[in-house]
Amino acid sequence: MALKIVFDECTACGDCEPICPTKSIKPKKGVYAIDPDTCTECEGEHDSPQCVDVCTVPDCIIPLK
Ligand code: SF4
Ligand code: SF4
User: Fold this and answer.
1) What is the reported pTM?
2) What is the rounded distance in angstroms from the CA atom of residue 37 to the CA atom of residue 50?
3) Could you read off the pLDDT of 46-58 as tens digits, one per residue?
């Protein structure tokens, strides 16, 4: 299970990058992207996805599928 960042919604604020416990968020093509191979949706580490909690843009970070 993984989340993804909607490129058209991301403002590239960078707030989500440092709070990801699995270091899955990296700059990509001027915005940010989540590595689906390492994103755990924060399971086992936090009660909710930390990137979703910190992102101020509605519907910017959504389920991969
Ligand atoms: S859901 Fe958690 S593990 Fe996945 S990218 Fe967001 S902060 Fe990182
Ligand atoms: S917090 Fe949201 S808007 Fe900011 S870089 Fe991350 S996904 Fe993009």
Assistant:
1) 0.96
2) 17
3) 999 999 999 999 9
